[in-house]
Amino acid sequence: MNEYDVAIVGGGPIGCYTAAELSSRGFKVGLFEQKKEIGIPIKCAGLLTPRIFSTFNIPQESSVQNKIYGATIHSPSNHELTIGGDKVHAFAVDRTTFDQTLAHQAEKHNVDMHTSSKVISAQHDKKNISLTIKNSQKKNRNITCSLVIGADGPQSRIRQTFLASNPKERLHGIGAEIIDSNLDPKIVHIYLGTDIAPGFFAWIIPTDPKGETARLGLCASSLGNKPLHKYFSDFMEKPYVQQYLEGSTTLTSMGGLIPLGLLQQTTTDRVMIVGDAAAQVKPTSGGGIYTGLTCAKHCVATAQQALEKSKVTNSFLQTYHKEWMKTIGKELSMGMRFRRILKNLDNDYLDKYIKKLDTPKIRDTINTYGDIDHPSTLLMPLIKQAPSLAKLLLHYK
Question: In CATH, which of 3.30.300.30, 3.40.630.30, 3.20.20.330, 3.50.50.60 is domain 2-44+97-167+261-335?
Answer without folding.
Answer: 3.50.50.60
